[in-house]
Amino acid sequence: MNPQTLQLICFYAFSLVTVASALSVITLKNTVHAVLALVLTFFSAACLWMLLDAEFLALALVVVYVGAVMVLFLFVVMMLDIDLEKMHEGFVKFLPVGVIVAVVMLVEMLGLIGVRAMHAHDLGVDPAAVTGVSNTAWLGQALYTKFLLPFEVAALVLTVGLVAAVALTLRERRGARYESASRQVRVDPRDRVRIVKMDAVRPSSASADEGTAGESKP
Amino acid sequence: MADQLINQVMWPLIYILCIVLPLVIAVAMFVYWERKVIGWMHVRMGPNKVGPGGVLQAFADVVKLLIKEVILPTKANRFLYFLAPLIALVPALAAWAVIPFSGKMVLSNANAGILYLLAMTSLGVYGIIIAGWASNSRYALLGAMRSAAQVISYELAMGLCLVCVMVLAGSLNLSEIVNAQAGGKGLFDWFWLPLLPIFVIYFVSGVAETNRLPFDMAEGESEIVAGFHVEYSGSAFAIFFLAEYANMILVSFLSAIFFLGGWLSPLQGWIPADAPGWISWLGAGSFIWLFIKAFVMSFFFLWFRATFPRYRYDQIMRLGWKVFIPIAIAWVFVAGLLKYYDLVSIGVGA
C-alpha cells in the first residue's frame, strides 16, 4: 500500500466521522450528547488539517476549541434544565422556516463556490515545504514579518472584545459577600482574641458541687 | 506490502507497548511509594504486609479493584458513564508519545511537540466533566465543575510558562528544547536558572492541573466526598486512578525536560570526555538522568500532599488568575529580552 492511498483512506475516514458527527449535533435529542458530537466534529476536523500538514492549525483547534471553549460550552449545557419533549413539539411548525433558511444558505454557498471556481487559480506548492521548515515555523515567520500589521490588528480587536465582555458582565452584586485577601492577611490575632493572664484558683467546695452537678455520671 | 505493514504498524505498536507497559507498572510502584512516603511523614509504617516490605500492595489493590462490581447509579447516563474513564485515560497515555527519554529514544519526534502536549493535557478534563455529569450525583457534578474551572485557569498559566521555554529554546520540539540546555556550565545551563519563577509556576500549575493536593478541589473528600468519581467502583475507578497517576508522572517528566535539562547530565562540561570509565559516564547524557530528575519531581507531589492543607476554592482561583498568569506574562518579556541580548547561552556544544 503506497502512502498516498493510505492518506486517502484516512481522509475519507476522518471526513466521514466529521460529517456524521456534525449531523448528529443537530439531530441528537440529548443536548449534552449534541455538544460532545460537536467536540468530535472539531477533533476530526483537526485530524483532517493534520493530513494537510497544517499541524499548527490542527493543534491550535484542539487546544482552543476542544480544550477550552467547548468545555465551558458543555458546562452551560449541563447546567440548563431543558424539557426535551417541549423542544421537539414545534418541529413541524418551524420546518418550513428551517427549510427556507437551509435552501437560501445552500444557494449562497453554491454561488460562492461557483464564483470562486471561475477565478480559480492554482495554489501552488506548500510554501512551508519549499523553505524546508516545519509548518509551525513557517507560519510564525509569515505572521510576524509579512502579516505583522493584520496580525496586530486582529490581536487588538480580540482585546477590545475581551474588555467589552468583562465590562458587560462585571456588575456589583448586592448582598454578595466578598473576601479581601489583603485584609485577611493583615488580620492581627491581638485584635480578635484577648488573652487574659490570671492566677490559678481553687474553687470553693460549694461552687465545685455546682460545677459537677450538671455533668452526667457514668 | 508486508514490509510496510511491519514498518508502519508493527514497530510503532511495539514502541507504544514499550512505553505504556512500564508506565502502568511505574504507576503501581508510585502508588506504593506514595503510601510509604506519606506513612513515614506521618510517622506510620505505610503498607508492609503484601510482599517484602509491602512492595506488592499496589498489585493486590489492582486485583481487588478488578474483581469488584462496577455499579451503575440509577438514572445515570449509561453510555457516557462508562465512556468517561476511557476519555480520561486516553490523553494521559497519548501525551507520552512525544516525550524524549534520551537523544534517540523518542516515539514521535514531532516538530510541534509542545502544542501536541498542550492539546492532549487539555483533553483530559473531558473525562472528569463527563464522569461528573453522567453519574447523576450532586457531589460528582460539583466536583466536575470545580475541576473544569481549575484546569482551565491553570492551563493558561502553564501555556504561558511554555511560551517562555519556547522563546529561549526557539523550538517546539522537545528534543531540541533539551539540546538547547546543553552547555559547559553543568546544571547552570538548564532553563531553571533564567526561568526560575516560571519553573515554580509551571510545577505548581502542574500540581493543580492534575488535581493533586493541595489543589484537589475536584475530590475534596471532606467537602464533596470524592468529587467526580464518587459513584465509580471497581475497574472504572481503577482507570481514573491510573490516569491521574500517569498524569502526575507526566508532569514530573515534563518539568525535568523543560527546566532541568531532560537527559543531560548535571555535570555536563565539567568532566572531560576522555576521563576513564564511569567518570566520563557521569558527564554524558543518559535516560537515567531524566529518570532521576523525574523521580525527584514526582517526590514533590507526595511531599506537598503530606505537608499542605487544602486550598480554599477562591484562593485557588486567585492564585491562578491574579498571581501566576501576571507573573508568567511578565516573564515572557523577560525571556524575550534575555534571548535578544544573548544573556542565555543556548545549546552550546550540543
Beta-strand portion of chain A reads under 5%
Number of helices of chain B: 12
CATH arch. level architecture of the domain at 9-82 in chain A: Up-down Bundle
Q: Structural class, from helix and strand content of chain A?
A: mainly alpha
Helix % of chain A is: over 70%
Form type of chain B: globular
Low-confidence stretches of chain B: none
Features:
heterodimer, A: 218 residues, mainly alpha, Four Helix Bundle (Hemerythrin (Met), subunit A), 11 helices, 72% helix, extended, B: 350 residues, 2 domains, 12 helices, 65% helix, 0% strand
Give a written overview of the molecule.
The complex is a heterodimer of chains A (218) and B (350). Among the domains of chain A are: 9-82, NADH-ubiquinone/plastoquinone oxidoreductase chain 6, subunit NuoJ (Four Helix Bundle (Hemerythrin (Met), subunit A)), CATH 1.20.120.1200; 125-168, no CATH class. Chain A has eleven helices and no strands. Chain A has helices at 3-27, 31-51, 55-79, 84-87, 91-118, 127-131, 135-144, 148-169, 181-185, 189-192, 205-213. In chain A, helix 2 packs antiparallel against helix 3. In chain A, 13% of the residues are buried. Chain B folds into two domains: 1-67; 68-340, no CATH class. Chain A: It is a multi-pass membrane protein. Chain A: The chain crosses the membrane at residues 6-28, 35-52, 58-82, 94-115, 147-170.
What is the strand and helix layout of this fold?
The complex is a heterodimer of chains A (218) and B (350).
Chain A: H1 3-27, H2 31-51, H3 55-79, H4 84-87, H5 91-118, H6 127-131, H7 135-144, H8 148-169, H9 181-185, H10 189-192, H11 205-213
Helix pairs in contact in A: 1-2, 2-3
Chain B: H1 2-41, H2 57-66, H3 78-94, H4 113-134, H5 138-169, H6 174-179, H7 196-209, H8 221-224, H9 234-259, H10 277-283, H11 287-307, H12 313-340
Helix pairs in contact in B: 1-2, 1-9, 1-11, 2-9, 3-4, 3-9, 4-5, 5-7, 5-12, 7-9, 7-12, 9-11
